Write a sequence for this structure.
């Protein structure tokens, strides 16, 4: 694992984060899926995490701070993924939809209102449109977020020696 030392390990984290966003976009277009606000939120967290990995690769200083930011960001993403998974698991118990579609929100509401609605979700948040080995997209995202948190800690440990 010596090749992960220094900025290269962080750059690989950056590529992996944006690779997952690219994969999500490919799945979306390939299977003609409409992402819900929780999916969009998880993509934004993956991109934020990727930017933090890139900054850590470039700056190559303050390893404790960057590791803390990586883990914190990954845990925020894990929280959103768990919320999404919970909505999917309880869709029969849901009384009403979560809200309106993502595109509709940004076209018809002021920016501040649209952003607040994004974090409330929409009716299609409960839909399970695609699985991989029986795992839904939020479940896969949750695994990825935990993986990135562990990866950040691993990079910290191998770079401090």
């Amino acid at each position: 694992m010596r090749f992960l030392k220094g900025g290269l390990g962080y750059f690989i984290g950056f590529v992996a984060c944006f690779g997952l966003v690219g994969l999500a976009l490919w799945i979306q277009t390939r299977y003609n899926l409409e992402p819900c606000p929780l999916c969009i939120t998880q993509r934004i967290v993956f991109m934020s995490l990727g930017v933090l990995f890139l900054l850590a690769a470039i700056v190559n200083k303050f390893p404790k701070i960057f590791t803390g930011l990586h883990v914190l960001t990954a845990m925020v993403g894990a929280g959103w993924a768990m919320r999404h998974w919970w909505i999917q698991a309880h869709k029969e118990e849901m009384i009403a939809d979560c809200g309106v579609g993502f595109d509709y929100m940004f076209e018809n509401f002021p920016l501040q209102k649209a952003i607040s609605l994004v974090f409330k979700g929409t009716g299609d948040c409960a839909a399970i449109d695609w699985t991989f080995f029986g795992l839904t997209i939020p479940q896969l995202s949750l695994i990825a977020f935990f993986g990135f948190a562990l990866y950040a800690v691993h990079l910290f440990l191998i770079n401090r020696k």
Remarks:
- The longest strand covers residues 131-132.
